[in-house]
Amino acid sequence: MRTQRQVVDYSLQKRAVLRELLAGRVGTYDVCDASPYLKNAARFHGEPTDRRCPICRSENLTLVHYIYGDELKQSAGQARTLTELPVLAMTLREFQVFVVEVCLGCDWNHLVEQYLLGRDGLAGDSDGAGEQDVAAAEGAGRRRREAQR
Ligand SMILES: [Zn+2]
Q1: Residues 40/44/50/51 CA torsion (nearest 10 deg)
Q2: From ligand 1's centre to the CA of 64, what distance in Å?
Q3: What is the pLDDT along the chain (149 residues), one digit of tens a residue?
Q4: Which of 126, 127, 117, 61 has the alpha carbon at shortest distance from 92?
């Protein structure tokens, strides 16, 4: 998505959890604890994948996209389908997306990544705020370089 930015990838944390599980330091009941809300979100708003669940290996994972941000008002914290996100990204200045993978077979769930979406990420925004930010950042960089001299 064009306005996607500040991506945080949680695959390392996920691998760490799976390692703990393999080593027997945590049980499947600790990591396969998807709430009824999360499972409903996966059923109604989820994005099917062709990746097998790392725990039960019998179901494919579903990705759920949760959205957060002041501009969303009462919609904050709700799940959205992947196709709804670009529309929101063009309407709102900025909102946070949390992507959670869920297995509807064994209830495994883990945060996959988070990122920001919204018009603030577009260069040449109609009100020029984006360009001003770039100019301000360049100015700050120049001042820093001058200070180092
Ligand atoms: Zn599973």
Answers
A1: -30
A2: 15
A3: 789 999 999 999 999 999 999 999 999 999 999 999 999 999 999 999 999 999 999 999 999 999 999 999 999 999 999 999 999 999 999 999 999 999 999 999 999 999 999 999 887 555 544 455 555 555 555 555 555 55
A4: 117
Alpha-carbon span 2 to 107, nearest angstrom: 32
Name the token pair of 143.
Answer: 């001042």
Output the pTM of the full model. Answer: 0.80
Contact by Cβ (8 Å): 89, 118: yes
Question: Separation of 58 CA from ligand 1 center, angstroms?
Answer: 6
Distance 76 CA to ligand 1 centre (A): 28
Cβ-contact 95, 24 below 8 angstroms = no
Contact between 73 and 111 (Cβ < 8 Å): no
